[in-house]
Design goal:
Elements (H helix, E strand, L loop, with lengths): L1 H19 L9 E6 L2 E4 L15 E4 L4 E3 L8 H10 L5 E5 L2 H9 L9 H6 L5 E2 L7 H7 L8 E4 L3 E6 L2 H24 L1 E3 L3 H13 L21 E3 L4 H14 L2
Parallel strand pairs: 6-7
Antiparallel strand pairs: 1-2, 1-5, 2-3, 3-4, 5-8, 7-8, 9-10
Helix pairs in contact: 2-5, 3-6
């Protein structure tokens, strides 16, 4: 029971973090933690920034409620899909961070090696096709991605990140949003330089040398890069550039 209380407190804390960071608004998002064959889950319809340990509910790995006065999140099937396909994962965070969700709405994965730290720790973030939230359809479209990635963009919806601990799952969500923000800025500047294949090999060697835990996605052709680290040029009109700059200024207020 003491461990369960600690994990409930950690879920509440992560909920506060994603709310304070602006990764969710109102009652958006959900957080869960797996303890053996049981799952602790944020409830349906409550703001993640104002949860208490009494709000956290418990279910089994089939979604049957075991304890708690509230109902589990309507998106619990998405979390259970992760747990049932990744025995190494114990925590899941789902949120709608602005820049990452912008990529999801634009239909763009984040799969280019532009930041060495992200290559080392997170790798690529694919885009899963659209599915209706709170339905089994959403869990089904994620099934093929979950074994190969540690974060996924959900088309026209948001993002999902998961890890061995709640802290790791949260950090992966934070890294995803930070990466998406930087990628947006590079598009505004009209230039995006990727890390060359040669330097990627060196990064992977560093990762292996220091035992950094990350999935090796090279067999899936990820991350995508030119052989010489060439840059990509993006053309935008003056009005589009002004609009993009205004949006970023609004986000940084």
């Amino acid at each position: 029971m003491r461990h369960e209380l600690l994990h409930k407190q950690q879920i509440v804390e992560v909920g506060q973090w994603i709310y304070q960071k602006g990764f969710v608004s109102a009652a958006d998002g959900n957080v869960s933690y797996r303890e053996g064959k049981e799952v602790l889950m944020t409830p349906k319809g409550l703001c993640k920034g104002r949860l208490t340990v009494e709000d956290i509910v418990k279910t089994d790995l089939q979604g049957n409620q075991l304890a708690g006065s509230r109902q589990p999140s309507g998106e619990i099937s998405m979390h259970l899909e992760v747990y049932n396909n990744r025995p190494d994962i114990n925590a899941v965070v789902h949120a709608h961070p602005t820049y990452a969700t912008g990529f999801a709405v634009a239909g763009l994965p984040i799969n280019k090696p532009t930041l060495s730290e992200v290559v080392l720790t997170l790798g690529c973030i694919p885009l899963a096709e659209y599915a209706t939230p709170t339905t089994p359809e959403l869990a089904a479209v994620l099934r093929d991605y979950i074994p190969h990635y540690n974060a996924i963009l959900l088309a026209n919806h948001g993002a999902l990140a998961y890890g061995e601990t709640l802290l790791e799952a949260y950090y992966r969500m934070e890294t995803l949003e930070h990466t998406a923000h930087i990628a947006t800025v590079t598009r505004i500047l009209g230039r995006e330089t990727v890390i060359s294949s040669e330097n990627l090999d060196k990064l992977f060697a560093v990762r292996e040398k220091y035992g950094i835990k990350a999935l090796d996605l090279r067999a899936l052709g990820c991350p995508t890069t030119g052989s010489d680290g060439s840059s990509e040029i993006y053309a935008v009109s003056k009005s589009e550039l002004i609009q993009l700059i205004q949006q970023i200024l609004e986000q940084t207020k």
